[in-house]
């Protein structure tokens, strides 16, 4: 159960309206690393967590906080859009190219579609996409993704902080920066604890290590001109997983044959000269098995 309370987690009140900055701030709401992404990412990670206890409780605590961050950013955008664009403002823009250029930086959809409010979209107007989130069921993989999400989110918040001198906007962003600092550290600590509790190791998943080709699990292939990469700590020594030794392969050679596609189905009309013979599978629409039986019934 979620319970909404009217007070915001932190104040979101600009000193004055700024529709151009409201357009920019959309990135922190509906961008790939915005508040909607981390909200849904953490909610689905929590709902998909198979262990009642501290990890699920932590995920749901932060997920619920992020819902509040969505409301903070949405409220700030709405307040930045207050009074814009009024009819008088539009007339000024038509008369003054400088004013027109400034207003040209605002997002018309915030007015036309949202009635002077926020959109679930990024700063280019691209709609938020559920494919932005990571919720795999593997907590080690998910927590690494969470560190990256919080890092990117804090990076974008810092850039937006430097794009405004509005004290009210900066006040809210200072709070957001601090929470992103906490969350990065928190997920890093949670990764350590997963390992300390013996639930996960270093590599995700901690499985099939005896099935993979171990001889290919240690060498970095030098596939870009220059050898400076060999100067890093990843070029030699024990790997973090404690199972392998780093190495650098300076003259890697291909291990497979040419990547040639098979002969095409003639009913798909791909351009083909017949040099590889006829296709070995059934022609399109003549499938055997369940698909073919379904086709027969339908016809």
From TrEMBL:
CDD domains listed in its UniProt record: Mn_catalase
Top-level taxon: Bacteria
SUPFAM superfamilies: Ferritin-like (SSF47240)
Gene3D superfamilies: 1.20.1260.10
Region (Disordered), start-end ranges: 254-273, 279-299
Family: Belongs to the manganese catalase family.
Protein name according to UniProt: Manganese catalase family protein
């Amino acid at each position: 159960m979620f319970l909404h309370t009217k007070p915001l987690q932190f104040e979101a009140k600009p000193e004055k309206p700024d529709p151009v900055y409201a357009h920019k701030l959309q990135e922190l709401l509906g961008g790939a690393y915005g508040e909607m992404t981390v909200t849904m990412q953490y909610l689905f990670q929590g709902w998909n967590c198979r262990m009642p206890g501290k990890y699920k409780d932590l995920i749901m605590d932060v997920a619920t906080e992020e819902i509040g961050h969505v409301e903070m950013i949405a409220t700030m955008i709405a307040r930045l859009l207050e009074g814009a664009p009024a009819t008088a403002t539009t007339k000024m823009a038509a008369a003054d190219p400088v004013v027109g250029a400034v207003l040209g930086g605002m997002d018309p959809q915030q007015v036309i579609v949202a009635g002077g409010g926020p959109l679930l979209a990024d700063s280019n107007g691209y709609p938020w996409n559920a494919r932005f989130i990571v919720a795999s069921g593997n907590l080690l993989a998910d927590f690494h993704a969470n560190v990256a999400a919080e890092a990117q989110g804090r990076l974008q918040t810092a850039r937006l902080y430097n794009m405004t001198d509005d004290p009210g906007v900066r006040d809210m962003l200072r709070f957001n920066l601090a929470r992103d600092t906490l969350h990065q550290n928190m997920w890093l600590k949670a990764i350590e604890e997963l390992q300390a509790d013996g639930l996960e190791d270093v590599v995700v998943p901690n499985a099939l290590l005896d099935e993979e080709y171990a001889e290919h699990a240690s060498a970095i292939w030098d596939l870009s001109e220059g050898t400076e990469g060999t100067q890093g700590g990843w070029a030699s020594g024990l790997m973090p997983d404690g199972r392998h030794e780093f190495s650098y392969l300076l003259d890697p050679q291909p291990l497979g044959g040419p990547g040639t596609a098979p002969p095409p189905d003639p009913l798909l009309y791909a351009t083909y000269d017949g040099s590889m013979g006829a296709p070995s599978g059934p022609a399109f629409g003549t499938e055997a098995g369940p698909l073919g039986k379904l086709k027969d019934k339908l016809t």
